[in-house]
């Protein structure tokens, strides 16, 4: 059998389909819905960068947490710190949004979703695509997907900070609707982070003998169960963080105001 090399046509091109599609089902729904949902999310995230209504005590909008610039209200700063100092000319969200954003952008589920929804690469199984050449994630810019595990480390920190924000709100206003919105969001964000494929691999993916590492094996089992729900958690947490963030901003703008806000 002839070995396929990196320079062979089989490696440089995808398998071609002469027909436009071999599917008889409405395959286009998934990429279309994905395109719409992700576009809304990106537009909203971009708007939050320039919106200053991200804090109303004791609630902190998740997209701008932690707030580490001198322009942040003192109560909104993480432990009162402002390590970014005089970078007040930059919106606070712009200083940290890249970390959770990078984690989602390089996430295995999101790759599948936006490759199909935006790049049509491929739009669906059994459907002809416009791209003849295929290099996978071996070249720039897609080779950057390989740093996903490092974004995972940053996402762990962000998840803990969101949990800290929720606990602070719980202490200050235990009956507030916003408090419980932030708590639910923090739980979903951390579940999504822990369900990551990288987390599963880091937990015990390199072990050759599970019997010699019972604690790591048990942790691996828990993460594996979460990993089976990674797609659902990715979508649900995306809606939860956007919803929680919007709620806090609407309260800060006095658009939402009632006794248990």
What is the string of helix and strand elements? HHEEHHHHHHHH
Spans of at least 5 consecutive residues whose pLDDT stays below 50 are 1-10
Number of strands: 2
Kindly report how far apart the N and C termini lie.
69 Å
Transmembrane segments: 27-50, 87-110, 150-171, 177-194
Organism: Streptosporangium amethystogenes subsp. fukuiense
Keywords: Membrane, Transmembrane, Transmembrane helix
Protein name: Integral membrane protein
Question: What's this model, at a glance?
Answer:
52% of the residues lie in helices and 2% in strands. It has 10 helices and 2 strands; from the N terminus they run H-H-E-E-H-H-H-H-H-H-H-H.
Architecture overview:
By secondary structure, this protein is mostly helical. It has one domain. The chain contains ten helices and two strands; from the N terminus they run H-H-E-E-H-H-H-H-H-H-H-H. The protein has helices at 9-12, 29-50, 92-96, 98-105, 108-117, 148-172, 177-194, 197-204, 214-227, 230-252, and strands at residues 55-56, 59-60. The protein has a two-stranded antiparallel ribbon. Strand 1 and strand 2 form a beta hairpin. Helix 4 packs across helix 6. The longest helix has 25 residues, at 148-172. The chain is globular and about 60 Å long. The N and C termini lie far apart (69 Å). 27% of the residues are buried. Residues 1-10 have low confidence and may be disordered. It comes from Streptosporangium amethystogenes subsp. fukuiense. The chain crosses the membrane at residues 27-50, 87-110, 150-171, 177-194. Keywords: Membrane, Transmembrane, Transmembrane helix. This is Integral membrane protein.
């Amino acid at each position: 059998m002839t070995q396929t090399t990196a320079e062979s046509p089989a490696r440089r091109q995808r398998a071609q389909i002469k027909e436009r599609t071999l599917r008889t089902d409405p395959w286009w729904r998934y990429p279309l819905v994905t395109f719409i949902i992700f576009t809304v999310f990106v537009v909203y995230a971009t708007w939050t960068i320039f919106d200053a209504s991200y804090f109303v005590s004791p609630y902190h909008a998740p997209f701008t947490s932690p707030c580490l610039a001198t322009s942040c209200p003192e109560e909104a700063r993480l432990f009162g710190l402002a390590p970014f100092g005089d970078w007040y000319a930059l919106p606070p969200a712009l200083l940290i949004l890249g970390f959770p954003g990078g984690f989602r952008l390089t996430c295995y589920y999101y790759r599948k979703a936006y490759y199909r929804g935006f790049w049509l690469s491929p739009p669906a199984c059994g459907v002809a695509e416009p791209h003849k050449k295929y290099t996978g994630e071996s070249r720039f810019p897609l080779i950057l997907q390989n740093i996903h595990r490092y974004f995972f480390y940053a996402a762990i920190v962000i998840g803990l900070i969101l949990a800290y924000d929720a606990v602070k709100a719980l202490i200050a206003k235990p009956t507030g609707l916003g408090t419980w919105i932030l708590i639910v969001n923090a739980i979903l964000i951390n579940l999504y982070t822990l369900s990551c494929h990288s987390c599963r691999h880091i937990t015990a993916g390199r072990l050759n003998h599970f019997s010699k590492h019972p604690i790591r094996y048990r942790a691996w089992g828990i993460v594996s169960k979460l990993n089976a729900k990674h797609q659902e958690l990715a979508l649900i947490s995306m809606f939860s963080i956007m919803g929680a963030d919007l709620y806090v901003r609407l309260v800060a703008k006095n658009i939402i105001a009632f006794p248990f806000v």
